[in-house]
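Q: I have 245 residues here and want to know how they pack in 3D. Can you give me a structure?
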Amino acid sequence: MVSIADDVNREILRLWYAPEHGLVDRKPLMPLVYPELRGGGLLFVGLNPSFSEKAFRSFLVGSEWEDFDPQTFYAWRDRCDDFDVHRAQRVEAAALAAYEHYRRFARLAASLETQWDHVDVFTLRDTSQKAALSQILRGGARELVCTNLNGFGRAQLGLCTRLIQRLAPELLVVANAAASRLLVEALDGTFDEAAGHHVVRLGDRIVPAFFSSMWTQGALDAFSAQRLEWQIRRVYRERAAATAR
């Protein structure tokens, strides 16, 4: 049986080599591919995978990765089959387990005794968010809204929204301001005044959704982060209790 991760990774790689998007000419880095995706629980969403050799060194420790060179490994491949998807999945799994960026997500899920996944709106690797956005916005467009995405950007956003639907989380957390602006529109999120948070429809379910800026690099101050985590825990536990009744 094909897993969700294997299925979406094939879609990602087809997108990378689709002639209409012109990546063959631009030759960007190879994309993010997902390791195991479990679904349910908490789903955290970012904008795109950053590319920092220092970050790779911080979590790729041990003999297996002693000679790992991210610049070489993620360099463009003229043939899709020349990209080692299985090793790329192991790198992503190592990042989710050990990279500082994901630690708060893991701690929050652990406090709720639930599982968690992380996906990105765009699977395009770049050293800065600004550089990544320049590749998915229509020429001359500045405002980050769905209608200003170019074909490459729309295709990736569509892939992400379908993936969110398939993962069917109990609670959605978008931890990036740019990703939040896009997904609140793409998922038709509405603010529930009585509950004090957004909701989105995933299939036949109404799911709580929390749209925020990044939880790292100082984008979200410590006090706002504390309140946000408290609210997420409370909403998750209330829903779990209601489901158990």
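Q: Anything worth noting?
A: The beta strands are 42-46, 116-120, 171-175, 190-192, 197-202, 205-212. The two ends are 33 Å apart (CA to CA).
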